[in-house]
Amino acid sequence: MFRKTFMECLGIDSRIRVIAITGGGGKTSLMFQLAREMLDRSEKVVTTTTTKIFPPGPDQSPCTFLLDGCDNPRALEQELERCGHITVGRSILEASGKLQGIASDVVEYCRSVADRVLIEADGASGRPIKAPEAWEPVVPDFSDMVVHVIGLDCLGKPALSETVFRLEKFLSLTGLDPGGTIDVKTIARLAVHPDGGLKGVPSEKPAVLFLNKSDVLGAELSIKSVVDDIANLCAHKFDWIAYGSLKERACDSRHRFS
């Protein structure tokens, strides 16, 4: 258990170049963990967002490249060549301090100059689980894989806005009552719903479910049994189901359906 890289756990091979990450519970951490592994393989990596993220720290990304005010069409490529891994955004938003996301055509350009492009394509305001609204997630249609993230710290919690982002939508998709307990069936119901965890996945492209924060489960809950229960309910809806702890930089994959 927990001897694999995150790339191995998620089934990312050389054909998977553009990866969109959706859901809650650790999207940003997963994006930068994958970038570290790819950089270790001497690959040129762009991390970015189609929504908004906080600017990365030096431990996450060595270089941040802002498009606004840049009049050199080759500057992005040159910075990528220099750093190996860059985080690309349009600008820093004054009100929130967040990095403003880029449009799909810019993502496509990044694909043309980088070996891999990792996109945070959703927002969850720090909650472990979310349901997407009509305009979410923002997944480019040329993405090679979508990874949907759910934080297992939602298990056993009441369905309230402190734990769930887009609560009303979540209740509608899962059939749970307000304040009802989130269990493995609730997680699976959301994950496999075409307007939930599978929303935005390009046709015939792999979808992966990553269950984060396995380290927070109490002694009474076996991570393997929790993952097995969720996997049985999600069978053949996702190509892979993986689990682990981004905090501990540890992961494993338990089910592959493709």
Describe this structure in words.
The protein has 258 residues and is of the alpha/beta class. The chain has one domain (7-252): Rossmann fold. Helix content is 26%, strand content 23%. The protein has helices at residues 6-10, 27-40, 75-83, 104-113, 167-174, 184-192, 223-234, and strands at 18-23, 45-49, 52-53, 63-66, 85-89, 99-100, 116-120, 129-130, 145-151, 164-165, 207-212, 240-245, 250-256. A nine-stranded mixed β-sheet has the order 4-5-2-7-1-9-11-12-13, with helices on both faces. Strand 11, helix 7 (223-234) and strand 12 (240-245) form a beta-alpha-beta unit. The longest helix has 14 residues, at 27-40. The radius of gyration is 18 Å and the shape is globular. The two termini are 21 Å apart. The model has no long low-confidence stretch (mean pLDDT 93). This is Putative selenium-dependent hydroxylase accessory protein YqeC. Pfam families: YqeC (PF19842). It comes from Desulfomonile tiedjei (strain ATCC 49306 / DSM 6799 / DCB-1).
